[in-house]
Amino acid sequence: MSIVDSMPFAPAFGPIKYRTFIRISFEDEQQRQRPAACWQLWKEGRGLAEAHQRGGRLQAVEYVDPNQQGGEDDSRRPRIELDSASFDSFSVIWTPTSGMATADCSVAVRFNFLSTDFSHSKGVKGIPVRLCAKTEILSMGTPESPPVVAPEVCFCKVKLFRDHGAERKLSNDVAHVKKTIDKLKQQIAQVESGVREFGKRKRPGSIVDKSSGERPAKVQKHKRTWSTSSQNSAGRPALEEDLHVKLATVQDMFTSTRP
């Protein structure tokens, strides 16, 4: 996880210190209201089974010391210290590298759970979680108190699977999106066909001899499948326009704005 202070303060006497809290929450609102039930399922399964790897501690998410990863020179890294830790969260205190134009830090996070650990029904769907982060200024490098700046809080949606499970999940998602695209294209074709037929069709009439005492036969009205009453400025029916918007949205899932 990368943390960047886009508007850092100029240090007066010493380096600025930040504190970042990392926590796991749940995407679903009902699960956020009763997280203990979901974590109990994880504890009874993977949590207790893998706790011996961490000295018997239950830790769903943990901080990874950069010294364990190697690679970059220590002098070029920001200084990071583990501040606190619990089974679903931890916090670190970090100091940016001196002499750098930006105040940033990369925090390595390890997840010790899968998205399928929070449900009795196993499958490719899984339960999404939220990776939440809150960063605040802890010290300005002076004896004075740091300025009153509201902490920055953000989160992102995370789903965790094993390698084969992730491949299967991705394959199923792609198949589902392609099926949705085909369905929308069929609906658009039906709408366009219905509009053309409606334009060509004329309502049948009847000539009635008023002098006759017989009642005219009832004219059978045609039942239209698609309504063409509401049209947009370009003359396209609103239903067709809505389907084109949905189709474009779904097709965007196969594209990326990142290089």
Q: Major β-sheet, in short?
A: 5 strands, antiparallel
N-C termini distance: 20 Å
- The unreliable regions are 224-230
- Described by the principal axes of the CA atoms, the overall outline is extended
Task: Describe the 3D structure.
This protein is α+β, with helices and mostly antiparallel strands. α3 (163-200) packs antiparallel against α4 (238-251). The chain starts with a strand and ends in an 8-residue tail after the last helix. A hairpin with a 2-residue loop joins β4 and β5. The protein has a five-stranded antiparallel beta sheet with strand order 4-5-2-8-9. Strands 1-6 form a two-stranded antiparallel ribbon. Strands 3-7 form a two-stranded antiparallel ribbon. Mean pLDDT is 76; it is low at 224-230. It has four helices and nine strands.
How would you summarize this macromolecular structure in one to three sentences?
With about 260 residues, the protein is of the alpha+beta class. The chain is about 30% helix and about 25% strand.
Q: Key features?
A:
two-stranded antiparallel sheet, 4 helices, 9 strands, alpha+beta, 259 residues, extended, 5-stranded antiparallel sheet, single chain
